[in-house]
Amino acid sequence: MAFNTIIYETNNGIGYITINRPKALNALSEEALTELSEALDMAAKDDDAKVVIITGAGGRAFVAGADISAMQHMTAVEAYDYARLGQTTYNKIQDMPKIVIAAIDGFALGGGCELALACDIRVASAKSQIGIPEVTLGVFPGFAGTQRLPRLVGTGIAKEMLATARKVHADEAKEIGLVNYVVDENPLAKAEELAAQICKNSMSAIALGKKAMNEGMEMELKKGIEHEASLFAVAFTTEDQREGMTAFLEKRPANFK
Ligand code: CAA
After folding, report:
1. Within this chain, do residues 160 and 132 fall inside the same structural domain, yes or no?
2. Tally of domains within the chain
3. Which ranges of the sequence are coiled-coil (predicted)?
4. Does residue 254 belong to any structural domain of this protein?
5. Would you call 134 a catalytic residue per the annotation?
């Protein structure tokens, strides 16, 4: 499918989604969000995409936020719909039974930070700056940042980032657990290295483990633990479980389909 603002392609088992509005630092207009949503549907179904990497075009930004010019004259009702479009789109990343990696090279602000937060793993280049500066615009994060950021870094840091609007530099982002890795340059190469490692393992087991973590995080601890047992049992209905354990006992590498 041809998109105006998104590029979707696959190579070597990886699905690449590139936000492609470099002149606006990849700000997410309604069109870009809609196309991102469609690209995520494609990636979820695509057997050639075992792992998905999301990145931004142009070398200056991952995504500099929701499109401020699109929001300027929105009514409250339109703003609600826009927030729901962003939120339901990002929820597709959370719900996708595949690992999604954000490769951040530059600004990841507002809706861009929230996009990265929805991903499973974040890799950033040293020049990257991550933040939620919406309060400088008289609004606050509306693409689930108020929910995902405190869950990732804790409420103390999240509230400070919200209220000060400051951009956190890559090294600090690593320190506070906001990103997994910082590389000098080329975060895409690091994301591809992680994707290659992931591709060697059981996709069905990764999907079940991701589901157990996501759903468990929304439950009381002992319920989450019980839920884990149910999903652990599901793993024993898969071909991958038979292959993985047989391969170990036969002292050979597993050959997952
Ligand atoms: N929306 C629309 N356009 C944007 C944009 C955004 N979020 N961010 C950058 N742009 C545009 C600029 O308007 C500019 O366009 P023109 O060339 O046509 O003037 C172009 O991208 C380049 O940006 P700058 O000239 O500002 O570049 P800079 O290097 O001086 O600054 C920046 C870079 C610090 C990232 C700055 O662009 C900036 O602060 N951007 C806005 C960041 C922001 O506030 N994001 C939150 C948006 S609100 C949101 O996301 C709500 C939500 O949670 C749902």
Report:
1. yes
2. 2
3. none
4. no
5. yes
* Domain CATH for 12: 3.90.226.10
The H-assigned helical ranges of 10-75 are 30-45, 68-71
Is ligand 1 within 6 A of the CB of residue 240?
no
30 C-alpha to center of ligand 1: Å?
15
Q: With a 6 A CB cut-off, is 244 part of the ligand 1 pocket?
A: no
Domain end, chosen from 199, 223, 240, is at 199
The pLDDT tens digits of the residues spanning 208-254 come to 999 999 999 999 999 999 999 999 999 999 999 999 999 999 999 99
Tokens linked to 72: 């300027």
Structural domain containing residue 181: 6-199
Q: What is the ipTM of this complex?
A: 0.98
Judge if the beta carbon of residue 67 lies within 6 A of ligand 1.
yes
CATH of residue 235: 1.10.12.10
- 70 neighbors 29 (Cβ within 8 angstroms): yes
Q: Is 3 helix (H, G, I), strand (E, B) or coil?
A: coil
Both structure tokens of 50: 């075992």
* pTM for the whole structure: 0.98
Q: Fill in the DSSP letter of residue 1.
A: -
Q: What is the pLDDT of residues 152-198, one digit of tens each?
A: 999 999 999 999 999 999 999 999 999 999 999 999 999 999 999 99
